[in-house]
Design brief:
seven-stranded parallel β-sheet; 14 helices; six-stranded mixed β-sheet; 18 strands; 17% strand
Length: 428
Protein backbone atom coordinates (compact mmCIF):
# COMPACT_ATOMS: atom_id res chain seq x y z
CA UNK A 1 0.00 0.00 0.00
CA UNK A 2 2.89 2.37 0.71
CA UNK A 3 3.89 2.16 -2.96
CA UNK A 4 0.83 4.09 -4.09
CA UNK A 5 2.01 7.07 -2.02
CA UNK A 6 5.23 7.48 -3.97
CA UNK A 7 5.45 10.85 -5.78
CA UNK A 8 1.97 11.82 -4.53
CA UNK A 9 0.69 14.86 -2.64
CA UNK A 10 0.01 13.46 0.82
CA UNK A 11 -1.51 15.03 3.93
CA UNK A 12 -1.92 13.40 7.34
CA UNK A 13 -4.91 14.05 9.60
CA UNK A 14 -5.34 15.03 12.35
CA UNK A 15 -2.22 16.39 14.07
CA UNK A 16 -1.77 13.83 16.86
CA UNK A 17 0.74 11.30 18.19
CA UNK A 18 -0.35 8.62 15.72
CA UNK A 19 0.00 10.87 12.66
CA UNK A 20 3.37 12.19 13.85
CA UNK A 21 4.68 8.62 14.20
CA UNK A 22 3.32 7.82 10.73
CA UNK A 23 5.02 10.96 9.38
CA UNK A 24 8.42 9.71 10.54
CA UNK A 25 7.74 6.16 9.34
CA UNK A 26 6.71 7.26 5.84
CA UNK A 27 9.54 9.77 5.61
CA UNK A 28 12.02 6.96 6.25
CA UNK A 29 10.66 5.14 3.17
CA UNK A 30 11.18 8.20 0.97
CA UNK A 31 7.55 9.33 0.86
CA UNK A 32 7.07 13.09 1.04
CA UNK A 33 4.36 14.46 3.33
CA UNK A 34 3.08 17.97 2.54
CA UNK A 35 1.73 18.56 6.03
CA UNK A 36 -0.98 17.91 8.59
CA UNK A 37 -4.69 18.73 8.37
CA UNK A 38 -6.50 19.59 11.59
CA UNK A 39 -9.73 21.51 12.22
CA UNK A 40 -8.78 22.48 15.77
CA UNK A 41 -5.02 22.98 15.82
CA UNK A 42 -2.71 25.52 14.27
CA UNK A 43 1.05 25.67 13.87
CA UNK A 44 3.88 25.14 11.45
CA UNK A 45 2.89 22.55 8.84
CA UNK A 46 -0.75 22.37 9.99
CA UNK A 47 -3.59 23.58 7.75
CA UNK A 48 -7.36 23.67 7.97
CA UNK A 49 -9.36 21.21 5.80
CA UNK A 50 -10.72 24.06 3.65
CA UNK A 51 -7.18 25.21 2.84
CA UNK A 52 -6.08 22.13 0.91
CA UNK A 53 -7.12 22.08 -2.74
CA UNK A 54 -4.89 19.76 -4.69
CA UNK A 55 -4.00 16.47 -3.04
CA UNK A 56 -3.81 12.80 -3.93
CA UNK A 57 -4.45 11.27 -0.51
CA UNK A 58 -5.28 12.19 3.07
CA UNK A 59 -4.21 9.53 5.56
CA UNK A 60 -6.40 9.59 8.69
CA UNK A 61 -4.90 8.28 11.93
CA UNK A 62 -7.67 8.63 14.49
CA UNK A 63 -9.50 5.49 15.73
CA UNK A 64 -12.09 7.47 17.67
CA UNK A 65 -12.93 10.31 15.24
CA UNK A 66 -12.19 9.01 11.76
CA UNK A 67 -15.87 9.32 10.75
CA UNK A 68 -16.05 13.04 11.53
CA UNK A 69 -12.67 13.76 9.93
CA UNK A 70 -13.53 11.89 6.73
CA UNK A 71 -16.45 14.25 6.05
CA UNK A 72 -13.93 16.92 5.05
CA UNK A 73 -12.44 14.97 2.15
CA UNK A 74 -13.18 13.05 -1.05
CA UNK A 75 -13.78 9.43 -0.02
CA UNK A 76 -11.75 8.17 -2.98
CA UNK A 77 -8.73 10.03 -1.66
CA UNK A 78 -8.93 8.82 1.93
CA UNK A 79 -6.65 6.18 3.41
CA UNK A 80 -7.05 4.99 6.99
CA UNK A 81 -4.48 3.49 9.31
CA UNK A 82 -5.52 0.40 11.20
CA UNK A 83 -3.13 -2.08 12.79
CA UNK A 84 -5.74 -4.86 13.08
CA UNK A 85 -6.48 -4.87 9.34
CA UNK A 86 -3.37 -3.59 7.57
CA UNK A 87 -1.13 -0.53 7.97
CA UNK A 88 -3.07 1.49 5.37
CA UNK A 89 -6.52 0.72 4.03
CA UNK A 90 -8.71 2.54 1.53
CA UNK A 91 -11.83 4.22 2.86
CA UNK A 92 -14.04 2.04 0.64
CA UNK A 93 -12.41 -1.17 1.89
CA UNK A 94 -12.82 0.01 5.46
CA UNK A 95 -16.54 0.63 4.89
CA UNK A 96 -16.87 -2.83 3.34
CA UNK A 97 -15.33 -4.27 6.50
CA UNK A 98 -17.89 -2.40 8.58
CA UNK A 99 -20.71 -3.74 6.42
CA UNK A 100 -19.43 -7.27 7.00
CA UNK A 101 -19.57 -6.67 10.75
CA UNK A 102 -23.24 -5.68 10.71
CA UNK A 103 -25.67 -8.25 12.15
CA UNK A 104 -22.83 -10.71 12.50
CA UNK A 105 -22.80 -11.36 16.22
CA UNK A 106 -25.40 -11.95 18.91
CA UNK A 107 -23.06 -11.19 21.80
CA UNK A 108 -19.93 -9.09 22.21
CA UNK A 109 -17.37 -9.45 25.02
CA UNK A 110 -15.56 -6.36 26.31
CA UNK A 111 -12.08 -7.39 27.49
CA UNK A 112 -8.92 -5.56 28.55
CA UNK A 113 -6.15 -8.11 29.12
CA UNK A 114 -5.00 -11.65 28.45
CA UNK A 115 -6.79 -13.06 31.49
CA UNK A 116 -10.07 -11.54 30.28
CA UNK A 117 -9.53 -13.05 26.83
CA UNK A 118 -8.93 -16.51 28.30
CA UNK A 119 -12.21 -16.55 30.23
CA UNK A 120 -14.22 -14.89 27.47
CA UNK A 121 -12.93 -17.41 24.91
CA UNK A 122 -13.97 -20.39 27.02
CA UNK A 123 -17.50 -19.00 27.38
CA UNK A 124 -17.74 -18.03 23.70
CA UNK A 125 -17.01 -21.60 22.65
CA UNK A 126 -19.92 -22.76 24.82
CA UNK A 127 -22.18 -20.11 23.30
CA UNK A 128 -21.21 -21.27 19.82
CA UNK A 129 -22.17 -24.85 20.74
CA UNK A 130 -25.63 -23.50 21.61
CA UNK A 131 -26.05 -21.65 18.31
CA UNK A 132 -25.08 -18.15 19.45
CA UNK A 133 -22.45 -16.10 17.66
CA UNK A 134 -20.04 -14.04 19.73
CA UNK A 135 -16.86 -12.03 19.37
CA UNK A 136 -14.31 -10.21 21.49
CA UNK A 137 -13.93 -6.45 21.28
CA UNK A 138 -10.30 -5.41 20.96
CA UNK A 139 -9.85 -2.34 23.14
CA UNK A 140 -7.18 0.33 22.84
CA UNK A 141 -5.58 0.59 26.26
CA UNK A 142 -2.28 0.61 28.13
CA UNK A 143 -2.22 -3.21 28.25
CA UNK A 144 -2.64 -3.67 24.52
CA UNK A 145 0.37 -5.98 24.07
CA UNK A 146 -0.86 -8.24 26.86
CA UNK A 147 -4.37 -8.23 25.37
CA UNK A 148 -3.07 -9.17 21.93
CA UNK A 149 -1.04 -12.01 23.38
CA UNK A 150 -4.32 -13.44 24.64
CA UNK A 151 -5.97 -12.98 21.25
CA UNK A 152 -3.11 -14.78 19.50
CA UNK A 153 -3.55 -17.75 21.84
CA UNK A 154 -7.26 -17.94 20.96
CA UNK A 155 -7.25 -17.46 17.20
CA UNK A 156 -10.51 -19.36 16.80
CA UNK A 157 -12.40 -16.51 18.52
CA UNK A 158 -13.56 -13.66 16.25
CA UNK A 159 -12.32 -10.17 17.09
CA UNK A 160 -13.92 -6.83 16.30
CA UNK A 161 -12.28 -3.48 16.81
CA UNK A 162 -13.73 -1.15 19.41
CA UNK A 163 -14.56 1.70 17.05
CA UNK A 164 -16.59 -0.74 14.91
CA UNK A 165 -19.01 -1.54 17.73
CA UNK A 166 -21.54 1.23 16.81
CA UNK A 167 -21.87 -0.44 13.39
CA UNK A 168 -22.71 -3.89 14.77
CA UNK A 169 -26.24 -4.96 15.58
CA UNK A 170 -25.82 -7.11 18.69
CA UNK A 171 -28.12 -8.07 21.53
CA UNK A 172 -25.86 -8.43 24.57
CA UNK A 173 -22.63 -6.91 25.85
CA UNK A 174 -20.65 -9.00 28.34
CA UNK A 175 -18.03 -7.01 30.26
CA UNK A 176 -15.17 -8.72 32.07
CA UNK A 177 -14.42 -5.28 33.58
CA UNK A 178 -17.13 -2.63 33.72
CA UNK A 179 -15.32 0.42 35.12
CA UNK A 180 -12.90 1.07 32.26
CA UNK A 181 -15.41 2.03 29.55
CA UNK A 182 -18.68 3.12 31.13
CA UNK A 183 -19.68 5.22 28.12
CA UNK A 184 -19.81 2.20 25.81
CA UNK A 185 -21.85 0.29 28.38
CA UNK A 186 -24.33 3.12 28.92
CA UNK A 187 -24.63 3.82 25.19
CA UNK A 188 -25.46 0.14 24.71
CA UNK A 189 -28.05 0.23 27.48
CA UNK A 190 -29.74 3.24 25.87
CA UNK A 191 -30.12 1.15 22.70
CA UNK A 192 -31.82 -1.65 24.64
CA UNK A 193 -28.79 -3.92 24.60
CA UNK A 194 -28.45 -6.20 27.63
CA UNK A 195 -25.31 -5.59 29.68
CA UNK A 196 -23.71 -8.32 31.79
CA UNK A 197 -20.66 -8.30 34.03
CA UNK A 198 -18.59 -11.49 34.21
CA UNK A 199 -16.36 -11.28 37.29
CA UNK A 200 -12.89 -12.31 36.20
CA UNK A 201 -11.02 -13.29 39.35
CA UNK A 202 -10.55 -12.03 42.90
CA UNK A 203 -12.20 -8.63 43.25
CA UNK A 204 -11.71 -5.88 45.82
CA UNK A 205 -15.32 -4.70 45.61
CA UNK A 206 -14.86 -2.15 48.39
CA UNK A 207 -11.83 -0.54 46.72
CA UNK A 208 -10.12 -0.83 50.08
CA UNK A 209 -6.64 -0.55 48.57
CA UNK A 210 -7.31 1.58 45.49
CA UNK A 211 -6.82 5.33 45.32
CA UNK A 212 -9.91 5.68 43.12
CA UNK A 213 -13.53 4.56 43.36
CA UNK A 214 -14.10 1.99 40.62
CA UNK A 215 -17.63 0.98 41.64
CA UNK A 216 -16.92 -2.51 40.28
CA UNK A 217 -19.78 -4.16 38.38
CA UNK A 218 -22.28 -1.43 39.27
CA UNK A 219 -22.63 -0.08 35.71
CA UNK A 220 -23.79 -3.32 34.06
CA UNK A 221 -27.36 -4.50 34.66
CA UNK A 222 -26.61 -8.18 35.38
CA UNK A 223 -23.58 -9.76 37.05
CA UNK A 224 -22.29 -13.33 36.83
CA UNK A 225 -20.12 -13.75 39.91
CA UNK A 226 -17.44 -16.28 40.80
CA UNK A 227 -18.80 -17.44 44.16
CA UNK A 228 -20.63 -16.73 47.38
CA UNK A 229 -18.07 -14.19 48.55
CA UNK A 230 -18.86 -11.94 45.59
CA UNK A 231 -22.60 -12.13 46.20
CA UNK A 232 -22.17 -10.50 49.61
CA UNK A 233 -21.00 -7.34 47.90
CA UNK A 234 -23.90 -7.28 45.44
CA UNK A 235 -26.85 -7.82 47.78
CA UNK A 236 -28.49 -4.64 46.51
CA UNK A 237 -28.96 -6.28 43.09
CA UNK A 238 -29.01 -9.96 44.03
CA UNK A 239 -32.05 -10.63 41.82
CA UNK A 240 -29.84 -9.80 38.84
CA UNK A 241 -26.78 -11.74 39.98
CA UNK A 242 -25.93 -15.40 39.66
CA UNK A 243 -23.01 -17.59 40.76
CA UNK A 244 -21.22 -19.29 37.85
CA UNK A 245 -17.61 -19.68 39.00
CA UNK A 246 -14.52 -18.65 37.04
CA UNK A 247 -14.28 -20.25 33.57
CA UNK A 248 -10.53 -20.91 33.62
CA UNK A 249 -10.61 -22.28 37.19
CA UNK A 250 -12.06 -25.66 36.17
CA UNK A 251 -8.99 -26.56 34.11
CA UNK A 252 -6.66 -25.41 36.88
CA UNK A 253 -8.51 -27.38 39.58
CA UNK A 254 -8.55 -30.62 37.56
CA UNK A 255 -4.95 -30.43 36.29
CA UNK A 256 -2.21 -32.84 37.34
CA UNK A 257 0.01 -31.62 40.22
CA UNK A 258 3.76 -32.05 39.85
CA UNK A 259 6.68 -30.73 41.90
CA UNK A 260 10.27 -29.98 40.86
CA UNK A 261 13.10 -32.14 42.21
CA UNK A 262 14.64 -29.06 43.85
CA UNK A 263 12.51 -26.43 45.59
CA UNK A 264 11.67 -23.38 43.50
CA UNK A 265 9.61 -20.41 44.71
CA UNK A 266 7.46 -18.50 42.21
CA UNK A 267 7.27 -14.84 43.26
CA UNK A 268 4.18 -13.09 41.90
CA UNK A 269 5.20 -9.44 41.44
CA UNK A 270 1.93 -7.57 41.01
CA UNK A 271 2.13 -3.92 42.11
CA UNK A 272 -0.11 -2.31 39.52
CA UNK A 273 -2.64 0.41 38.72
CA UNK A 274 -1.55 2.70 41.55
CA UNK A 275 -2.14 0.17 44.34
CA UNK A 276 0.87 0.17 46.71
CA UNK A 277 3.31 0.68 43.85
CA UNK A 278 5.64 2.55 46.20
CA UNK A 279 5.92 -0.65 48.28
CA UNK A 280 7.20 -2.82 45.41
CA UNK A 281 10.93 -2.68 46.17
CA UNK A 282 10.45 -3.23 49.91
CA UNK A 283 8.11 -6.18 49.33
CA UNK A 284 10.29 -7.86 46.72
CA UNK A 285 13.40 -7.26 48.80
CA UNK A 286 11.86 -9.06 51.77
CA UNK A 287 10.75 -12.02 49.66
CA UNK A 288 14.17 -12.41 48.05
CA UNK A 289 15.89 -12.11 51.44
CA UNK A 290 13.69 -14.87 52.87
CA UNK A 291 14.33 -17.20 49.92
CA UNK A 292 18.09 -16.62 49.96
CA UNK A 293 18.23 -17.06 53.74
CA UNK A 294 16.57 -20.47 53.33
CA UNK A 295 18.84 -21.26 50.36
CA UNK A 296 15.81 -21.76 48.10
CA UNK A 297 15.96 -20.73 44.45
CA UNK A 298 13.26 -18.39 43.11
CA UNK A 299 11.83 -17.04 39.89
CA UNK A 300 9.77 -13.87 39.44
CA UNK A 301 6.46 -13.75 37.55
CA UNK A 302 5.96 -10.08 36.75
CA UNK A 303 2.42 -8.87 36.01
CA UNK A 304 2.21 -7.27 32.59
CA UNK A 305 1.25 -3.92 34.14
CA UNK A 306 3.91 -3.98 36.86
CA UNK A 307 6.55 -1.38 35.96
CA UNK A 308 9.29 -2.47 38.35
CA UNK A 309 12.78 -3.30 37.11
CA UNK A 310 13.96 -6.80 37.98
CA UNK A 311 17.01 -8.84 36.93
CA UNK A 312 16.39 -10.64 33.63
CA UNK A 313 18.07 -13.76 34.97
CA UNK A 314 15.37 -14.08 37.65
CA UNK A 315 12.37 -13.16 35.49
CA UNK A 316 10.18 -15.96 34.16
CA UNK A 317 9.83 -16.05 30.38
CA UNK A 318 6.79 -18.33 30.62
CA UNK A 319 3.20 -17.49 31.49
CA UNK A 320 2.22 -17.47 35.14
CA UNK A 321 0.41 -20.83 35.05
CA UNK A 322 3.34 -22.66 33.48
CA UNK A 323 5.70 -21.06 36.00
CA UNK A 324 3.49 -22.04 38.94
CA UNK A 325 3.20 -25.62 37.69
CA UNK A 326 7.01 -25.87 37.71
CA UNK A 327 7.36 -24.34 41.18
CA UNK A 328 7.20 -25.66 44.74
CA UNK A 329 5.47 -22.65 46.30
CA UNK A 330 3.99 -19.27 45.38
CA UNK A 331 4.47 -15.99 47.26
CA UNK A 332 2.16 -13.11 46.38
CA UNK A 333 0.47 -9.96 47.55
CA UNK A 334 -3.29 -9.57 46.93
CA UNK A 335 -3.95 -11.20 43.57
CA UNK A 336 -6.10 -13.78 41.83
CA UNK A 337 -2.84 -15.73 41.45
CA UNK A 338 -3.18 -16.83 45.09
CA UNK A 339 -6.40 -18.67 44.30
CA UNK A 340 -5.13 -19.92 40.95
CA UNK A 341 -2.01 -21.38 42.58
CA UNK A 342 -4.15 -23.16 45.19
CA UNK A 343 -6.32 -24.59 42.41
CA UNK A 344 -3.15 -25.84 40.74
CA UNK A 345 -2.31 -27.64 43.98
CA UNK A 346 0.63 -25.42 44.96
CA UNK A 347 1.10 -24.00 48.46
CA UNK A 348 0.89 -20.24 48.88
CA UNK A 349 2.14 -17.57 51.26
CA UNK A 350 0.26 -14.27 51.17
CA UNK A 351 2.98 -11.79 52.11
CA UNK A 352 1.50 -8.53 53.40
CA UNK A 353 4.13 -6.35 55.14
CA UNK A 354 2.52 -3.23 53.61
CA UNK A 355 -0.80 -3.90 55.37
CA UNK A 356 -3.34 -4.21 52.59
CA UNK A 357 -6.84 -3.54 53.93
CA UNK A 358 -8.90 -5.77 51.64
CA UNK A 359 -10.44 -8.52 53.77
CA UNK A 360 -10.69 -11.39 51.29
CA UNK A 361 -7.39 -13.06 52.14
CA UNK A 362 -7.35 -12.18 55.85
CA UNK A 363 -9.09 -15.41 56.93
CA UNK A 364 -7.74 -18.26 54.78
CA UNK A 365 -9.13 -21.06 57.00
CA UNK A 366 -5.94 -23.03 56.54
CA UNK A 367 -5.92 -22.77 52.74
CA UNK A 368 -2.65 -20.81 52.73
CA UNK A 369 -0.32 -18.96 55.09
CA UNK A 370 0.10 -15.25 55.81
CA UNK A 371 3.29 -13.34 56.66
CA UNK A 372 4.13 -9.71 57.32
CA UNK A 373 7.91 -9.62 57.73
CA UNK A 374 10.99 -11.60 56.70
CA UNK A 375 11.04 -13.91 59.72
CA UNK A 376 7.37 -14.86 59.50
CA UNK A 377 7.75 -15.35 55.75
CA UNK A 378 10.66 -17.76 56.27
CA UNK A 379 8.60 -19.72 58.77
CA UNK A 380 5.59 -19.91 56.46
CA UNK A 381 7.70 -20.96 53.46
CA UNK A 382 9.10 -23.85 55.48
CA UNK A 383 5.66 -24.85 56.76
CA UNK A 384 3.92 -24.71 53.37
CA UNK A 385 6.60 -26.64 51.51
CA UNK A 386 6.53 -29.40 54.12
CA UNK A 387 2.73 -29.64 53.82
CA UNK A 388 2.40 -29.40 50.05
CA UNK A 389 0.50 -32.66 49.68
CA UNK A 390 -2.54 -31.25 51.49
CA UNK A 391 -2.97 -28.01 49.54
CA UNK A 392 -6.07 -28.83 47.50
CA UNK A 393 -7.84 -30.43 50.45
CA UNK A 394 -7.03 -27.46 52.70
CA UNK A 395 -8.10 -24.98 50.01
CA UNK A 396 -11.37 -26.66 49.02
CA UNK A 397 -13.71 -24.63 51.26
CA UNK A 398 -11.95 -21.36 50.51
CA UNK A 399 -12.02 -21.91 46.75
CA UNK A 400 -15.64 -23.03 46.80
CA UNK A 401 -16.70 -19.83 48.58
CA UNK A 402 -14.77 -17.80 46.05
CA UNK A 403 -15.06 -19.84 42.83
CA UNK A 404 -17.90 -22.34 43.23
CA UNK A 405 -15.60 -25.32 42.61
CA UNK A 406 -17.97 -27.89 44.12
CA UNK A 407 -20.51 -27.19 41.38
CA UNK A 408 -20.66 -30.20 39.05
CA UNK A 409 -21.39 -28.14 35.95
CA UNK A 410 -18.47 -26.30 34.38
CA UNK A 411 -18.35 -22.51 34.95
CA UNK A 412 -18.32 -21.82 31.22
CA UNK A 413 -21.47 -23.91 30.72
CA UNK A 414 -23.25 -22.10 33.55
CA UNK A 415 -22.13 -18.70 32.27
CA UNK A 416 -23.26 -19.49 28.72
CA UNK A 417 -26.69 -20.62 29.96
CA UNK A 418 -27.16 -17.42 31.94
CA UNK A 419 -26.03 -15.22 29.05
CA UNK A 420 -28.43 -16.99 26.69
CA UNK A 421 -31.33 -16.61 29.14
CA UNK A 422 -30.66 -12.91 29.55
CA UNK A 423 -30.28 -12.45 25.79
CA UNK A 424 -33.52 -14.31 25.01
CA UNK A 425 -35.77 -13.42 27.93
CA UNK A 426 -34.12 -10.59 29.84
CA UNK A 427 -33.75 -12.65 33.00
CA UNK A 428 -31.30 -15.06 34.62
Amino acid sequence: MHKILKNKTIYLAPFNDLSQKLFHKLSETGIDIVGFVDSYRTGNGIVQPAEIKDYDYVVISSPEYWTEISLNFDNEKILLTHSQLQPLIRYSEYMDYLDNCRKKYDILFLVYNKSNVQDASIVIRELNLNGYSAAIIETNNQDRDNLRAGLLENKDIPVVIKEFVPYIDFKTLVCLIDWADRKLIRDSQEKGIKTIGLVDGIEDFEDADYAYDRQAYKTVEYVLVSGRNDMRHLEYKKDKCSIVGLPKMHNLWTSLVEYPTENLVAINLNFTYGSFEDMREMWLGQVIEACESLNINYIICQHHADRGEIPDIKKSREDVYTTIKKSSLVISRFSTVISEALALGKPVVYHNPHHEKVQLYKNPSGAFSISDDVESLKSMITYEISNNSTVRERAKDFLDAQFNIREAEKPAVLAAKKIINITKEGKL
